[in-house]
Amino acid sequence: MQINNLSKGWKIGLTLVVLFVLVKMFSSCSHGKDSMQVLRSVKIHQGDLEVKVTATGTVKPYNRVEIKPPIPGRVEEVLVREGDWVKKGQVLAQMSSSERAALLDAARAHGNETMKRWEEAYKMAPLLAPLDGTIIVRAVEPGQTVTTADPVVVLSDRLIVEALVDETDLSLIALGQKTAIQLDAYPKEIFWGKVDHIMYESKLMNNVNVYAVDILPQKIPPAFRSGMTANVTFIVKEKKGVLLVPSEAVVEWPKNVPKPKDAQFAVYEKTFGGKLVPVAVRIGDSDGRETEIKDGLTEGREIQIVQKKQKEMSVSPFAMGGPPKKSNTQGQGHS
Prior knowledge:
about 325 residues, alpha+beta, 6-stranded antiparallel β-barrel, about 45% strand
């Protein structure tokens, strides 16, 4: 009888020990699950990465030259239109001085023969192009009177894009750097160019120091017009065939977990039992959306994108801080 009672006692004790161990395991597992919430699962993949800097800019002439008459008078002919390409020394317009214009007007009253005689004796003054370029403004029409301060046409040797780069990004910009240009007027088209010049003096815009950077298009497309707004993307780095993960999957190594040597960053993965564990990784470059993984993971490995749950107050009367208080917030913070 005593033996049976002893055996029964051992059984009860053993059952209690097993229950205690299971409760501890469940409690530990539940704490881990309660502290982190899985947003979604992703797999490590191989792909190309471009590190970029973006800025806004404006299409403008590299050299803008206003062609003004050397003498005041009347414009008799304008031989070019906007968009025409002209060469240095080409005649852009013909004009009469104030004296010639007055003389011809008086001769016209005496008939065509008198006027023609004076036209042959007193030739018009040509207005010549000082350099090769494109006519971007035709400011006057035949018959208009002009002074030496009035431009007849405006000439541009070439069109560029001037981008304004924040001083915090200036260290990433270099001469000859590849750039992509998108015009607001033609958002579906991409024009390629390179950095031609970086200004040495800053401008203050909205209390931020910015530097003007000149981008020279590889080919000036017909769509380019002076004054157009452009969005410029500077290609800082291009990497082919690297391991990539979404940037939101990479977190700092958790403080409450023993830290491997030199571990700074981690991603989370699930164990066979469903527990979330951090895996140390060494990261490389990032484009903001994806981050390069240099070490710690292999292609195809599944990881979890997680966020911390907001901790709710314990309902246990023995919890620190006294009785539970009702929480008014239901939001969750990101890790």
